[in-house]
Specification:
- The complex is a heterodimer.
- Chain A is built from 30 helices and 10 strands.
- By secondary structure, chain A is of the alpha/beta class.
- In chain A, helix 3 (about 100-110) links the parallel strand 5 (about 90-95) and strand 6.
- Chain B has 2 domains: about 1-45; about 50-80, no CATH class.
- Chain B is built from 4 helices and 2 strands, in the order αβααβα.
- Classes of the chains: A alpha/beta, B mainly alpha.
- Chains A and B meet through helix 3, helix 12, helix 17, helix 19 and strand 10 of A and helix 1, strand 1, helix 2, helix 3 and strand 2 of B.
């Protein structure tokens, strides 16, 4: 006998990636059209399906994990099911992730719609050793459950049959109610009564929604339901007074928001169903990533491995970087000689080009290979998935500091550049955590400091360049840790939440991907050399050349006067006026510290001459103290601008500059004085 | 269920992976993810998903100065 009604409507709901579209295609074949849901750009697919003489209209709803009103997709699904009122909803459940998928199922059941479950991906579930008692699952949920394998078009006819028989009332459909416990159920009943007695609400809503569903949603503080209901029932009405009493009462009992209590009960119900109807024949397989993680994220071994990887990064940076650095050095020297030989007059122009441009920009550019190598190493660490592990390992320290585990992500980014790192703190939900992370971020040694380290370590610690640089990075981390603890204790007291991470599997990085990442970051440095550093070098050349008649770069030049004015501030640290000038201009960008020396010394970019020049003003002790000062003192101009933008406060921006200057001075002073105490030459 | 998760996390005294937590609780990993997302939404814990590492550190594209996943600036990233 043919179905008595001319056409029935069916909606397909389910979690994202549950195989909904495949089932939709299996049901409708080519008879489908694609459009948008009214007023939004979410794709809407509709089609027709046939079973015997029965034809039904099928709508593919957006994938969603629940029916709360948090996302557009959830609202579309909820509105379609309640307002459009399809004759039946097919809930596509991924059998291989059944526990998660059944959460949506409980909410669909709660809505009181006619429901059929398509238990999809049964083959995948079976392959993972998941054995589902389909009959028992159907019994527990009170709805028909049809096993399907969408990709192989298995179970489609059975599903169509279940759709037709459920709509006809032939299939078993009793629905169930999630029991929320005595206290909550009592409040639901009271609220249901108020909803039913409210004339406006009952008239407008009870045709589409059950009073129980509305009551649960109101208790869950579902903003959309509350807003809709308030259009027909005044906020001071019996219904809303009752709602307030219900919420207060439940809060007194549970001491937490009622949504959590309700969600907890739903998960509890799902867990109970799964425990009854699902058996796992074998344990989750231990993957290669799991095996590696047992070592690299181990509580004891994790830190040494992290330190080894970091040290290796700096070792490779300097060991491999010295060859191309020498080539660029020769190239720049050749360029300086060419200008000296071919441009005879005027003298100032030759000096500008050789001492200012080539000396300034060139002295920074020679470190370009090292910048690229460090970015290459960071890209490899990221692309293999190790950086996620680094954050995981460091979380223990972060948590001890009272800082959010997530804070380590922007801090890690700070090794590249502090500007995007400060911006990345937007991912932190807590304002206090965010502020602390912003304030300590500039202590993470960005690559702009690398040319400074490279220049000074080559001049004073040639045999241990990598190790000394590593110690500076470590110093930055330790200071960030200490300052975070201080800020948490005195400025932003509070507790941070526990941290749970989903670690990506380890992957072999592709050469192309790694090189692209390296280039994207390294080219930023190249652009900076052609803009900020070039401009800074020209300014320093002018200040070193003027007033006319003085010896270039001498104490009588404007730069020298400025340096002498500032010298008393840095003299206790073992620095002279040239260091004061370099640090002053390094405020714009840290690389300018190097170009300042390149320009001030008036020896072009010749690294050997710069190095021997530095030996006149520094000892290994003061060189290390100077590098530490450069690491810590005021963030560069771009970082300061972004701190102002992100904090929205001049006060905190000034604090970020002020505290880092004070800290840099104290640390450099301690290094210098302790070194002297140990008999090192100052 | 949610309280049980919080107890297990706090008992751990340090970071924990979703996989490890699922193993300890005897819960399906994907179901646990749903619960963790809910708890994270309530501010009771902090959750970092695998995709956040793989894509672009979860930054909106207009914020991302590195533009790792969209060098041309035209494609959408995780944000």
């Amino acid at each position: 006998m043919a179905f008595t009604e001319p056409q029935i409507t069916v909606a397909l709901a389910g979690n994202p990636n549950a195989g909904k579209t495949t089932i939709f295609n299996n049901l409708t074949g080519g008879r489908q059209h694609v459009g948008n849901w009214p007023g939004v750009t979410v794709e809407k697919k509709e089609g027709t399906a046939r079973y015997g003489e029965n034809e039904f209209q099928v709508a593919d709803l957006p994938g969603t994990y629940s029916l709360t009103a948090y996302s557009l997709e959830e609202i579309i699904v909820r509105d379609f099911v309640t307002v459009e009122k399809p004759d039946l909803v097919v809930d596509i459940v991924d059998a291989s992730n059944i526990e998660r998928n059944l959460y949506l199922t409980t909410q669909l059941i709660e809505l009181g719609v006619h429901l059929v479950i398509a238990l999809n991906m049964m083959d995948v579930a079976s392959g993972r050793g998941i054995d589902i008692d389909v009959a028992l699952l159907s019994e527990l949920l009170g709805v028909p459950v049809i096993p399907t394998v969408g990709l192989r078009n298995r179970g489609t006819e059975e599903l169509k049959e279940a759709i037709v028989s459920t709509v006809r009332g032939e299939a078993r459909f009793r629905g169930i109610q999630v029991n929320y416990g005595k206290e909550v159920e009592e409040e639901i009943s009271k609220l249901q009564a108020s909803i039913e007695q409210d004339e406006g609400v009952s008239r407008e809503f009870l045709g589409n929604y059950s009073s129980r569903w509305l009551a649960i949603k109101l208790l869950e503080e579902d903003e959309k339901v509350e807003e809709d209901l308030s259009k027909y029932s005044e906020p001071g009405s019996v219904l809303f007074r009752q709602l307030e009493m219900n919420r207060d009462h439940l809060f007194t009992i549970f001491s937490e928001d009622i949504e959590t209590v309700i969600v907890d009960n739903r998960y509890g119900f799902v867990a109970g169903v799964v425990r009854e109807a699902v058996e796992r024949e074998f344990e989750e397989p231990v993957t290669l990533s799991d095996r590696i993680d047992r070592i690299l994220t181990n509580r004891i071994l994790g830190f040494p491995f992290f330190a080894i990887f970091m040290w290796l990064t700096f070792f490779l940076t300097f060991y491999l970087g010295k060859f191309p650095t020498n080539w660029i050095d020769h190239l720049m020297r050749g360029l300086g000689n060419f200008i000296n030989t071919n441009i005879t007059s005027p003298v100032w122009l030759r000096s500008l080009l050789v001492d200012g441009v080539v000396g300034g920009v060139g002295s920074v550019l020679v470190f370009l290979p090292q910048i690229f190598i460090i970015f290459l190493c960071i890209s490899i660490l990221e692309d293999t998935g190790y950086m996620a592990r680094a954050a995981f390992i460091m979380d223990r320290i972060m948590h001890w500091l009272g800082l959010h585990g997530k804070s380590f992500i922007p801090l890690l980014m700070g090794f590249g550049c502090n500007v995007p790192a400060v911006m990345a703190t937007r991912t932190l939900e807590s304002d206090k955590d965010r502020m602390i992370t912003i304030l300590v971020n500039p202590l993470m040694s960005c690559t702009a400091r690398l040319p400074v380290y490279a220049l000074f370590t080559a001049a004073f610690f040639a045999a241990n360049q990598g190790t000394v640089t590593f110690s500076l990075y470590l110093l930055g981390i330790i200071l960030a840790v200490v300052m975070a603890k201080v800020f948490r204790r005195f400025l932003f007291p509070g507790e941070s939440e526990p941290f749970v991470m989903e670690l990506p599997p380890y992957r072999l990085p592709t050469l192309r991907g790694t090189l692209i990442h390296m280039w994207e970051r390294g080219s930023m440095f190249l652009r900076k050399a052609g803009t900020v550093i070039l401009a800074g070098s020209v300014v320093i050349w002018i200040l070193s050349y003027l007033p006319p008649g003085v010896e270039y770069g001498s104490g009588q030049s404007i730069a020298g006067s400025v340096g002498h004015f500032l010298e008393p501030l840095v003299r206790p640290l073992g620095f002279d006026w040239r260091a004061a000038v370099a640090l002053l201009f390094g405020f714009v960008a840290k690389e300018i510290v190097v170009s300042t020396y390149g320009t001030l010394l008036g020896v072009g970019e010749n690294r050997t001459l710069i190095s021997s020049g530095l030996h006149k003003f520094f000892t290994p002790l003061t060189a290390y103290s100077f590098m530490a000062f450069t690491l810590i003192y005021t963030p560069c101009l771009a970082t300061i601008a972004v701190i102002k933008k992100e904090t929205g406060s001049w006060k905190w921006t000034a604090f970020a500059v002020g505290y880092s200057l004070a800290l840099a001075w104290i640390v450099a002073f301690v290094i210098y004085r302790v070194g002297l105490l140990f008999g090192l030459r100052g | 269920m949610l309280d049980e998760i919080m107890r297990e996390i706090e008992k751990n005294e340090g970071p924990i992976t979703v996989k490890e937590l699922a193993g300890r609780l005897g819960v399906e990993e994907s179901a646990l993810e749903g619960m963790l997302e809910f708890l994270a939404g309530k501010g009771r814990l902090s959750l970092v998903r695998a995709g956040e590492w793989e894509e672009c550190w979860a930054m909106p594209c207009d914020v991302c100065a590195l533009r790792r996943c969209c060098p041309e600036g035209g494609k959408e990233g995780a944000g």
